[in-house]
Amino acid sequence: MRGPSGSGKSTLLSLIGGLTLPTSGQVIVAGQPVSSLGSSQRAKFRETHIGFVFQMFHLLPYLSIVDNILLAASHADDAVRERADRLIERFGLSDRRSHRPSQLSAGERQRVAMARALLNQPRLLLADEPTGNLDPENAGTPCSTCCASSIQPAAPCC
Amino acid sequence: MLREFHSAGGTVLLVTHDNFAADQSQRIVRLRQGKLDEVIAAPSA
Predict the structure, then answer these.
(1) Residue A65, Cβ neighbours under 10 Å: how many?
(2) Is the C or the N end of chain B the one with fewer CB within 10 Å?
(3) What per-residue confidence (pLDDT) applies to A33?
(4) A146 pLDDT band (50/70/90 cuts)?
(5) Closest partner residue to A8 among B2, B4, B34, by Cβ?
(6) What is the pairing mode between strands B35-41 and A32-33?
């Protein structure tokens, strides 16, 4: 999705993810009337179906890398922690798991944001300029990092 | 990574100004003043 600044790209992602409610009309994602759901149902819908990679990555500065990734799950049970560990390993962040985001390079922060987005095995990934803040060398990372078994969606969409 | 996710059956909706990233997609839509302005079939479609 492309368009000039202020054209509504990020707003559309927020609407699809149920983070923003429309002032008119309805938002239907994979048959679900997202905009008609209550806030806890929308949260459940997001957790089940959607992964977000935000523009500035939005990592919490006071949490470790592993805890930032685990933020995507409402209950960090053993299975979720195991998935987080697999993602950390596949994204080459094993020696960074206890670091804070400020101790990481931009490329590493991007990988943490990706890992967090993939933790719940979403079927839909919403990514807002994930390469926008990186130098050209790092910008290739989201497309070139190969980590098949950790990044599979739960089931085919629709 | 996005390609891997996509080939495993996932759907990716990517906001980007990056030509390389856009070229990897199956469909490019352009937004203007809050409206879908243009739908462009992408090279990889």
Answers:
(1) 27
(2) C
(3) 93
(4) very low
(5) B34
(6) unpaired
